Amino acid sequence: MIKQIFYNIFSIALAVLVLLSTMSFAIDKHFCGDVLVDSAVFVEAKKCVQEAYEIELAFITKKECCKDELEVIKGQDQLKRSSFEDYKLDQQLYLTSFVTVYNQLFVSLAKQVIPHKNYSPPNLVTDIHVLDRVFII
Asked: Are the C-beta atoms of 62 and 110 separated by less than 8 Å?
């Protein structure tokens, strides 16, 4: 039971690790001058009010103080699958012996049977030591 739970947890953890290592995402940053106004992941960053005003009055002011930066973080593109036969002989031997010994750690012992577990002693009718007059001195 516990072995199955650990197996499921380990499988989920490896699937999440592969997903996170292959995922790419972009960080969009919007600066007004040298001040960071907004940053967003997966979506476009919000523009500042000043820039929207400058776009409307573009014919009056030609100078733009706002700028956008897009930082792309790329994940791993190629995954290499290897089989057991791709390893050298000494690596195969080590891996096989390690797995065998590791699995033997979780083998449980046979359940021990206690034959007198449910046995209750008989009720004493008389005290035998007094009846036979045998005392330890």
From this structure: no
- Tens-digit pLDDT profile for the chain (137 aa)? 888 999 999 999 999 998 888 888 888 888 887 888 888 887 888 877 655 555 555 544 445 678 888 888 888 877 778 888 889 999 999 999 999 999 888 888 788 888 888 888 888 888 888 888 888 87
Query: Residue 31, class by beta-carbon neighbours within 10 Å (0-12 exposed, 13-18 middle, 19+ buried)?
Result: middle
DSSP state of 47: P
Q: Which helix (H) or strand (E) holds 98?
A: helix 89-104
Q: Rounded to whole angstroms, how far apart are CA atoms 66 and 122?
A: 97
List of E strands, the chain: 25-32, 35-41, 66-73
- Dihedral pair phi/psi, residue 50, rounded to 5°: -60, -40
Burial class (CB in 10 A: 0-12, 13-18, 19+), 37: middle
